[in-house]
């Protein structure tokens, strides 16, 4: 079971999934979101950020120290245990019994999306994310909507 929970949390880090969310997974997802505070969701987003920062291509941009990683892992471990074994215990049992381990992954992905949206709604984050738009070529983008569509080659 420990591996299933770890895999579910690792699933937070994937951006897409091909699994189908059934009604018990949906119920569990709703429970996870409803049972977390804004601080819990920020902690989850911080954990995801730290995990992504371990990738060699972005690691030089992160100031996360080993103690930050350990603290974040401990915080999320406590949160996951509270959610699965206390706050959403019955919904977790039902989802696992009727829809299998993928229910955990999909439910935590939903929670991760909510956490990400909370961070993305911050004005400072929005300003940073929109910074690339200054370099876009408006004329080329407009041409995409006005140029005739080329016929596909046979």
Q: Could you please describe the fold and organization of this structure?
A:
The structure is a single chain. The protein has one domain (2-122). It has helices at residues 2-12, 23-34, 38-52, 66-87, 89-99, 102-120, 123-129, 138-146. It has 154 residues and is mainly alpha-helical. It has 8 helices and no strands. The mean pLDDT is 89. The chain is extended and about 55 Å long.
Give the domain tally. Answer: 1
Fraction of residues in β-strands: under 5%
Q: Which blocks of ≥5 consecutive residues have pLDDT under 50? A: none
Give the count of helical stretches.
8
N-to-C span = 53 Å
* Structural category: mainly alpha
Q: Which whole number gives the mean pLDDT?
A: 89
* Global Rg: 20 Å
Query: What quaternary form is this?
Result: single chain
Question: How many strands in all?
Answer: 0
Largest sheet: none
Helix content: 55-70%
Q: In one word, what is the shape? A: extended
Name the helix and strand elements from N-terminus to C-terminus, one letter apiece: HHHHHHHH
